Amino acid sequence: MEKSSRGISTPLVSFCIPCHNTERFVGETIECLLKQSYRNIEIVVIDDHSTDNSFSVIDSYKKVYHDRIVLEKSLKKGASAARNQAYNLSKGDFVVFFDSDDLVNPHYVSEQLSALKYSTDSVVISKWGRFYDNDLNTYKEDLFIVKRNLSFHQWVLEHWTDVSHTTPPGRLLIPRKIIEVSGGWNEDLSLNDDFEFFTRIFCNSKNIIYNNDSTFYYRSGIGGLSSKKSDKAYFSYFQSIKISIEKTKETLGEENALRRAYANIWKMFIYEVYPRLPELTIIAENEIKQLGGATIKFPAGRKTKALVALLGWKVVKKIKTR
């Protein structure tokens, strides 16, 4: 750790970033990190087989900020492998897994460290919301943020029961010690890999500390991985849920409230994939039965709710997926 002029330790914070074809945005992302008021950071970027000019854009920053930016090409393929590669190159006492098109406020790092109180047995999570394309004026804070500190048990009950668990990687500042215990990203997963990774991280965290003073801006509407729902992606989604629920059962058990949370996660999977992949849907339905049933309703706006009441959600979903 470095020492500040006041003698207070200033731990190194590593931003681990996979990059694939984001030449339009990656420069802005790097600049927002370089402008952080907390200076002791490193930016580790892995170019994941980009076919545009992403590598050149990043390299132009590396040539100027060679002491703060690490850049390598991916040894494997996929965001999870690139994140692991970046992590293995990083040296920080604290780590943020970050995407190459997202942004944070200028005091993000200092506020995250302050909220965590430099503890190495808990994680800190910022507020967040989406903005679209290149316009921060479109930013809207997520409506499902639980603005208080939570244990892992409380996190599952709060976020899994209503399936409001979206956790973009950049929201979290994670002590290296917790990652070492939890393990890296599962490279067999693509879609929903963050759900599985953060389940393990939260399992090994004393608390999930909420910080309202830092803001993570998630860029949407640019055709990222989550918008490409192939059968392979849906299988990854299935596997991430299966692994995560098994891990959580092992850690927290199966009290009634938890069983309902597990069942609701499976039910949302069914709502998402139907009518595709019927074999996975059957497995999910069996899991729900064994857990005692799900309570979450088919997600729908006002007009769609009326159609669901009239025709049933399966008919409506078939119409929407034509």
How would the blueprint of this fold be written?
Layout (H helix, E strand, L loop, with lengths): L1 E2 L5 E2 L2 E7 L6 H9 L6 E7 L6 H11 L4 E5 L5 H11 L4 E4 L5 E2 L3 H9 L6 E10 L2 E7 L10 H9 L11 E4 H7 L10 H11 L4 E13 L10 H22 L3 H18 L4 H14 L10 H10 L1 H8 L2
Parallel strand pairs: 3-4, 3-6, 4-5, 8-11
Antiparallel strand pairs: 1-2, 6-10, 7-11, 8-9, 8-10
Quick tags:
322 residues; alpha/beta; Spore Coat Polysaccharide Biosynthesis Protein SpsA, Chain A; nine-stranded mixed β-sheet; 12 helices; 11 strands; disordered N terminus
Summarize the structure.
With about 325 residues, the protein is α/β, with parallel strands linked by helices. The protein has helices at about 25-35, 55-65, 80-90, 110-115, 150-160, 175-180, 195-205, 230-250, 255-275, 280-290, 300-310, 315-320; strands spanning about 1-5, 10, 15-20, 40-45, 70-75, 95, 105, 125-130, 135-140, 170-175, 210-220.
Description of the structure:
43% of the residues lie in helices and 20% in strands. It has 322 residues and is α/β, with parallel strands linked by helices. The protein has 2 domains: 2-222, Spore Coat Polysaccharide Biosynthesis Protein SpsA, Chain A; 252-320, no CATH class. The strands form 2 sheets. Strands 3, 4, 5, 6, 7, 8, 9, 10 and 11 form a 9-stranded mixed β-sheet that branches. The longest helix is centred in the C-terminal third of the chain and has 22 residues, at 231-252. The termini are far apart. Mean pLDDT is 94; it is low at 1-8.
